[in-house]
Design brief:
The protein has 322 residues and is of the alpha/beta class. The protein is 34% helix and 27% strand. The protein has nine helices and twelve strands. The strands form four sheets. Strands 6-5-4-7-8-11 form a six-stranded mixed β-sheet, with helices on both faces. A two-stranded antiparallel sheet has the order 1-12. α1 crosses α3, α5 runs parallel beside α6 and α6 packs across α8. The radius of gyration is 24 Å and the shape is elongated.
């Protein structure tokens, strides 16, 4: 079911950008990322070398100093120049560097193509993912993406820099196009998507799942637990105002499978309406609580730079000196 989004309020998007993912809009999130930095906890258990300095010293890319050779030192790290000059064996010491991978997992199930305020849930999820991606590379991290639902099975391996982000953003726009074009495609359950995520995510990866929870299934908890045990997992749960509170009584036109239908709200329908939406997302919420996974509710009306802060993203306050 889809409802044309109402374009009112300060965050309103123009034209088709409210109901479909627009690449230019995602690229523009780079400006907002200047005031946003990733503050999610980092784990030392990562095998990827990069630009985040570790507290541990070992074999890496940055030379720190040379010191006297000690039994057990790697012979490949011998500093032959200092050894020849001093007449005593010396070995090089490197500052090991680490960088984290951030993997964005986006749901493209039919329920995500719904919205009554500002934009569809699918659009808000893509905009949030773009902001996180730009923020990640500004902090020196690598960013990748995985899409699932409605014929979408794409994956983008984590990569650093603006090129890494642009690769992900193009994929987000392409996946949205696929989901909109193939409405009859069977949606991939969350459990299968998480199994694919687990194969793509290296130890220490920060996985951010953006979904409305309607594609969750009982089998999703096992791969979700395995992801959480080897890295950080955060859940962004997309919502729309009409899912949280039934509209005023009356008859409303909606589109279902390309056909116009009418919904008649009145009496007990109000209670059943909100309960139906709550029940569909409650399973994933309970799984996240049991696993200690941080959850953020993100409405289609919300300002992203303000609302992403509780999820491990912090606003960077910039004040000019003096």
């Amino acid at each position: 079911m889809s409802v044309v989004a109402s374009q009112t309020g300060p965050a309103a998007l123009r034209g088709d950008a409210a109901v479909q993912v627009d690449l230019d809009t995602l690229i523009a999130q780079r400006l907002a990322a200047r005031s946003l930095v990733l503050a999610a906890s980092r784990r030392a258990a990562t095998a990827q070398a990069g630009i985040k300095t570790s507290r541990f010293r070992g074999r890496g890319v940055d030379y720190v100093e040379s010191r006297g050779y000690q039994p057990g030192d790697d012979i490949r790290s011998m500093d032959w120049r200092v050894t020849a000059r001093s007449g005593k064996p010396h070995t090089k010491v490197f500052q090991e560097e680490r960088e984290r991978s951030v993997l964005l997992v986006l749901d493209h199930a039919p329920s995500m193509r719904f919205g009554t305020r500002v934009c569809f849930k699918s659009v808000q999820a893509a905009r949030a993912a773009a902001l996180i991606a730009w923020s990640a590379v500004r902090g020196g991290d690598r960013v990748g993406a995985l899409g699932f639902g409605s014929g979408v099975t794409g994956e983008v391996r984590p990569a650093g820099g603006p090129r890494g982000v642009l690769h992900c953003l193009r994929a987000l726009a392409d996946w949205d196009l696929i989901a909109r074009a193939d409405r009859a495609a069977q949606a991939e359950p969350l459990s299968q998507a998480l199994e694919r995520t687990r194969r793509l995510a290296r130890p220490g990866t920060l996985v951010i799942l953006l979904t409305d929870g309607f594609s969750s299934d009982e089998a999703a908890e096992a791969p979700l637990a395995r992801l959480a045990s080897h890295g950080d997992v955060r859940l962004v749960l997309l919502t729309d105002a009409l899912e949280l509170q039934a509209p005023p009584r009356g008859r409303y036109a909606v589109e279902v499978a390309g056909q116009r239908r009418w919904l008649d709200f009145g009496g007990a329908v109000d209670t059943r309406w909100t309960e139906a939406f709550r029940t569909r997302r409650e399973r994933l919420l309970q799984q996240a609580r049991r696993l200690g996974i941080g959850t953020l509710m993100l409405d289609t009306r919300d300002d992203l730079t303000r609302c992403l802060a509780p999820l491990g993203l912090a606003l960077a306050t910039r004040r000019s000196a003096g």
